[in-house]
Design goal:
Distance between the termini: 24 Å
Strand content: under 5%
Order of helices and strands: HHHHHHHHHHHHHHHHHHHHHH
Number of strands: 0
Number of helices: 22
Length: 449
């Protein structure tokens, strides 16, 4: 993992290779393949060539740049407007210094709406001290009061409730179609709320409700961006969600935002930062039990597992299980997804990171047996996770069958996270390239990626 100082001076191509897990030779092969797809023959797959792009200031030829841009999903016109290497998708800065006030929340909302959609698939931008500072500031805050109504049209409860009523439907779409298909819709809803807050006229109670709706929409926009691979956009939305949750006085929603940020850090091999964010989420919620308490402690368990700390992970799993067994009369709508199957799947993921593969397989098997069919994207995730476990346990046929079951689900859901999971399965399959079933499955997964 690159340190912050190394990141500051590294070539953008280094970030791209790190994100994709590409060696220089792999990058050369990717460029050569894409060039052939573009109808250009005789593109040599030379490791030395791409090494010079990164280390000697050599500018790739036009064909190579077009080939790489096609692979990364970068529009061709960007190559003209942002000459090499500035068009490479490394993400942009994320502002975290908004005041924890109504004005600060409005500024964050105004900045994030639409702008976050232009983010290219890249890397986490907030890291290290930035994560620590954000978590510490959040924990030290008390919910703010709105200072008065703004000029503009009257905003009443019917308008607020109508917007809030749309959110569950967006969650269903995310479950079935994946984040890439939903993120523009979520951003559009967030834009409506930002406009109401900036220009509407409403009493203090309605203002708080609007900020809470904005916070959940921004949190959800961050989630679908994270799923679609837009990591900087996800962080922008989540910073905005924290500010809106603070102004709205919804501490549990803020804890859920921090929980989401923790998972992002787990996915990008930043377990120490993941623990810090998960701990802030747990401390925010206090002694909350039920699904909320369980999901927050489970996120802490995942972070400890990623760090290889079995003792701490086991402790958090026990707390999560106890919390899950004590159902609360009312749970926030955003906690509904954390059912028995999700709980079991998350335990299985902990055991994968700890290297306890038989336990991981048992928990994932139980989760898949009861996993709701309508949660298509997540079902594909856990099929792929269990497929990898089975292959690592030496059960190639079972692993291939599980991954093959995931293929049609991967086709209908556009999820960058699942594309990475599929790539992990493909790396395992390549160790069995002499077996026809493994080769055929690898080819199927390659077409989806």
């Amino acid at each position: 993992m690159l340190t912050e100082n190394a990141q500051a001076c590294a070539h953008p191509l280094a970030f791209v290779r790190a994100q994709r897990g590409w060696s220089y030779q792999k990058l050369a092969r990717v460029v050569a393949k894409r060039a052939r797809d573009l109808g250009v023959a005789n593109m040599a797959a030379e490791r030395q060539k791409v090494w010079r792009w990164e280390h000697r200031g050599v500018v790739p030829d036009r064909v190579s740049q077009l080939a790489l841009a096609t692979e990364l999903g970068v529009p061709t016109e960007r190559l003209e407007s942002h000459p090499w290497p500035s068009w490479l998708p490394t993400g942009d800065n994320v502002r975290t210094d908004y005041p924890w006030t109504q004005a600060g929340s409005l500024s964050a909302l105004t900045d994030v709406v639409q702008d976050a959609l232009t983010d290219r698939r890249g890397f986490l931008t907030i890291s290290g001290p930035g994560v620590a500072s954000l978590a510490t500031e959040w924990l030290g805050l008390e919910p703010a009061r709105l200072l008065g109504a703004l000029d503009g049209g009257l905003v009443d409860e019917q308008i607020v409730h109508r917007i809030a009523h749309n959110i569950p439907g967006l969650r269903v779409m995310d479950d079935r179609l994946g984040g890439e298909s939903v993120r523009r819709l979520v951003d559009a809803e967030l834009g409506v709320v930002a406009e109401l807050l900036a220009r509407g006229r409403y009493p203090e109670k309605i203002g708080r409700e609007l900020h809470i709706v904005a916070a959940e929409l921004a949190r959800f926009a961050g989630w679908v961006s994270f799923d679609a691979g837009y990591q900087t956009a996800a962080q922008r939305y989540w910073v905005t969600a924290l500010h809106a949750a603070h102004v709205g006085g919804d501490r549990l929603l803020g804890a859920n935002v921090l929980k989401n940020m923790s998972l992002q850090c787990v996915d990008f091999s930043r377990p120490a930062e993941a623990i810090e964010l998960a701990d802030a989420a747990v401390r925010t919620a206090g002694a909350t039990t039920g699904r909320v308490g369980a999901m927050l402690h489970m996120r802490k368990a995942r972070a400890h597992a990623a760090l290889g700390d079995q003792v701490a992970c086991t402790r958090e799993l026990a707390v999560a299980e106890a919390a899950f067994s004590r159902a609360r009369p009312q749970e926030p709508p955003w906690a509904v997804y954390f059912d028995e199957a999700e709980f079991q799947a998350q335990v299985g993921c902990c055991y994968i990171d700890l290297g306890h593969l038989p336990s991981a397989d048992r928990w994932l098997g139980n989760a898949l047996a009861s996993h709701p069919a309508e949660k298509v994207r997540d079902h594909a995730t856990y099929l792929l996770r269990r497929a990898g476990v089975q292959i690592d346990l030496g059960n190639l046929d079972t692993g291939c069958a599980l991954a093959a079951e995931a293929v049609p689900l991967l086709i209908v859901t556009r999820s960058r996270r699942n594309a990475r999971r599929a790539d992990e399965v493909r790396r395992r399959l390549r160790r069995h390239a002499t077996i026809p079933a493994a080769r055929d499955l690898d080819a199927q997964l390659a077409e989806i990626a």
